[in-house]
Here is the input.
Amino acid sequence: MAPSMKEHEADVVIVGAGLAGLSAADALSRHGKSVVVLEARDRVGGRTLGREIGGRVLDLGGQWLGAGQKRLARLAAELEVSTFPTYHSGEKILVRDGRISTYAGTIPSLPVPGLVALHLALRKLDALAARLPEGRPLAAAEALAWDDQTLETATQVLISRADVRELFDAAVRVVFGAEPREISMLYFLAYLRAGGGLMRLVEIEGGAQERRFVGSAQELSIRLAARLGGAVVLSAPARRIEQDTRGVVVTADGVSVRARYAIVAVPPALAGRIEYRPLLPVVRDQLSQRMPMGSTVKCIALYDRPFWREAGLSGEAVTSTGPMSVVFDNGSHDGAVHSLLGFVVGQKARVFSERPAEERRAVVLGSLARMFGERALRPVEYVEHDWSTEEWTRGCPVGVMGPGVMTGVGRVLREPAGRIHWAGTETATEWTGYMEGALQSGERAASEVGARLEGAGRRE
Here is the structure.
């Protein structure tokens, strides 16, 4: 061991200081267990990130508090992080085949047959998702059949109209950061089941985008970490985890932690980059290789005035033209900063990322101008964040399972490997892929490890 290596001992060592890892650490600490949290980045917050833009802190990562996300709401209240409603007053924009139309309400403007087909498709999908036993998708009678096909293949049967499929595919890309052809139908239905249905995942009012955090969602992790004091070690990427019958040793850059148990609270794709001794079971290793992260670039354009609001528009748009799939009004809570937020996702994000920065900026602003008018070409500031280029994230918003993965190796997603337990929003059974899911996963992992610690204590 290098002379400069700092050594720590704790009951539990946790890899990852996002909401999953920090909530697990907080729960264990409140029950009298000692913890050390190792974080690869020089900050906490994982896939949440706040940055001062135009004089206010705006989110470059996860940013919404959804309806029904009780853990997240409770944590925000406990940590005194205020929230405010996402702006959505006015008409929305739909761009299809280069044609622009506006609509009100939750369903885009389509010909009557298209509206009927969309409603029927949503009802069918929600009905299929309801056939999954809660938290146990592999127990569904149709699990193998659904996992054998991609979402794209399944929806070609469920949604006969091309215009409706276009809208559906745009929603899927934003939710997963992936293409329908890359997603297992079973995984998609499990995701719907965990989040309460597709409309709940994509809507503002009554949906996953209902409220935002004052000062960014990252503030939750910052305050949780502060509550843990010196237990959080930054700039310490975990490189190796060794375990035996007595405990675990996690070796990170400049730090070594000996503990009785470990919780790895990072996405499976990143967990698979850690060296394990002894090796993890083959099925677990396969899972980490076959659950890639989605691809998402978040683009924010700031303006001197909210001209879209003045024109009676909500700032929301769905488009099949250009790099972005959806756009939202992203103004600050106090009205001091006016901005539009667009998501470039899936295959478009992978292509977009390879283009020069000035070209990316021009194509995003050009797309906004087609929807909202020429004033969109002249922002006072433009910012983008590509989560696929972050070394310790490698994508956003969530890890995705393709055909055959869930039934083949998905059973070990939450299954401990010896003394190593797993957390992270990918492992959640409620609101998978969201901050609420991260909190649920941290809560579960802490409970599992706490029970083992208590059991060992009684035997002693």
Residues 6-46+217-291+401-459 form a domain with the FAD/NAD(P)-binding domain fold (CATH 3.50.50.60). Residues 97 and 341 are 22 Å apart (CA to CA). The chain has three domains: 6-46+217-291+401-459, 50-89+208-216+294-389, 107-202. The chain has 16 helices and 20 strands.
